[in-house]
Amino acid sequence: MKVLIADDHWMIRSSLKHAIRTVNSALEPLEAGSFQEAFHLLGDNPDVELMLIDLMMPGLPEFEGLRSLRAKHPEVPVAIVSVHEDREHVVQAIAEGVIGYIPKSADGAEMLRALTLVLNGDVYFPRDILQGSTMRRQQSAALAARDMATPTLTSRESQVLELIAQARSNAEIAEKLGMSPNTVRVHVRNVGLKLNLKERSDLMAYGESYTNTRAAS
């Protein structure tokens, strides 16, 4: 499995390369120091299966660089490794379709846990950042108010939705509820279909409002 590591600091690239080889020694890391280099490597290596990228690199503004990579290579999952540790950056990255957001300040154990999840096709988002700061409620309120009638969720789907709202990965949800990751994926898909929500960021926002409504009733 080829993994593209894109960061303009060689020490970060070296650390990530060492970390992913700790997770799986068979992984083949490719290194880019800019968005332009990342585009070249992806063109020369169509079998890249994951991108680990910094938001801030030479060539393009942070989210524009991410959008350009996603637009040209939508089939390759992207995880962000960033110095930005505010909720706004994390939520925006989720809305752009990334499968992970890993703060550069994460300690060794947390970094390995995050990389293990994204390398295995799961998701990772820092719950402390998403839940620990003052949260904006506008998106949640808009999602909750879009229809007066809330689609009926099964008890299991409700549990899954509430855990998504806590930024839990599919693997963590599976462990928490005692089910397989495949079963969790089925529940996540069904919840998304019932609520007409395609992005995980929308499910997270709706789930927060949904949880608060259930707690108040």
Automatic annotation (TrEMBL):
SMART domains associated with the record: HTH_LUXR, REC
Residue span(s) of domain HTH luxR-type: 146-211
Entry keywords, A to Z: DNA-binding, Phosphoprotein
Pfam family membership, one: GerE
Sequence positions bearing 4-aspartylphosphate: D54
All copies of domain Response regulatory, residue ranges: 2-119
Highest taxon listed in the record's lineage: Bacteria
PANTHER family in the cross-refs: HTH-TYPE TRANSCRIPTIONAL REGULATOR YHJB-RELATED
Protein name: Oxygen regulatory protein NreC
Originating gene: nreC_4
